[in-house]
Amino acid sequence: MSTNASGHGPWPEGYARVVLDTIDSTMAEAMRRAPDIARPTWIMAKTQTAARGRRGRKWVVPQGNLNATLIFRPEATASEAAKRSFLAANALFQALSIYVPAEKLSLKWPNDVLLSGGKVAGILLESSGQGPFVDWLSIGIGVNLRHTPQGVTDTMFPPTSLSANGGGDIDPMDFLSTLADAYATQEAKLLRLGFGRIRDDWMAKAARLGEVITARTGREDVTGIFDSIDHDGNLVLITGTGPRAIPAADVFF
Fold first, then answer.
1. Interatomic CA distance for residues 201 and 186, integer angstroms
2. Second label for 133, Cα 20 to 30 Å away, from 82, 91, 152, 240?
3. Percent helix / strand / coil, the chain, rounded to 5
4. Under 8 Å between Cβ of 15 and 51
5. 3-class SS of residue 191
6. Which helix (H) or strand (E) segment is 16 a member of?
7. 69 and 141 Cβ atoms separated by less than 8 Å
8. Interatomic CA distance for residues 124 and 82, integer angstroms
9. Distance of alpha carbon 90 from alpha carbon 27, whole angstroms
10. What's residue 59's pLDDT?
């Protein structure tokens, strides 16, 4: 069943919202709806049966947590569209900091939000297009609001939740309203001030900036000092052979 949601806090002008009871994944639903969307649309599911994260990894989503995807048509190349992960991360930080102290939160390149060192939220981007611009972009967001997923084997960044860190009992619909408003603000900031401002805001919240980290690309492990992200969104490490810009990797501290 699908309903239009209302009555859960202020909603940004120009954005649509659809709420589903049970779906395979909001990312899959966004892809199905892509040909027909008329304006940016948030799709939220109360229950997902086949959620996934980056590189096809399973994303565990107990009911009561947030499962949502924003699908829209940015006038952007594929590389420009990919930078929206930083907008989403900034928006998540802003939304989460309403419920827990901001100093407990940090942003882990390329797509995670950490709370007291554990993973509280993740971001997944998908797009399609054969011309100079993407036809559509989907930004999938999962947030552990009420429940900490069980059975997750990531011991370096174990899952955590807002409720486990004193964030209270948060309704997913209420959180989505807060997040959608924060994301709309990020898009307005990108339009007015450019990606440089988005980048600076993200860097101010980055986990382990200036420390030694390892980026695992699939072909090699690169260890160095986390210097910055560049204006294309690449991770920049200072290694023994000089700076390295890394477009995609898993990061380990």
1. 10
2. 91
3. 25, 35, 40
4. no
5. helix
6. strand 16-23
7. yes
8. 10
9. 20
10. 56
Residue pLDDT, tens place only, 195-211:
999 999 999 999 999 99
The one-letter amino acid code at 77 reads T
Q: Which residues of 62-82 are buried (b: 16+ CB within 10 A; e: fewer)?
A: eebbbbbbbbbbbebeeebbb
Token output for 10: 């202020």
Residue 10: how many other CB atoms lie within 10 Å: 9
- The one-letter code for the residue type at 27 is M
If phi > 0 it is left, if psi is from -120 to 50 it is alpha, else beta; for residue 222 that is beta
pTM: 0.91
Q: Tell the residue number behind the tokens 């939160």, with chain if given.
A: 105
- The pair of structure tokens assigned to 21 is 């009871």
Mean pLDDT, residues 16-24 taken together: 94
Amino acid at 186: Q
Longest dimension (CA), the chain: 56
Residues in the chain: 253
The number of C-alpha atoms within 13 Å of 32 and in the hemisphere containing its C-beta is 8
Q: Which two tokens stand for residue 93?
A: 């930080």
Helix (H) or strand (E) holding 95: helix 84-96
> Residue 212: helix, strand or coil by DSSP?
strand
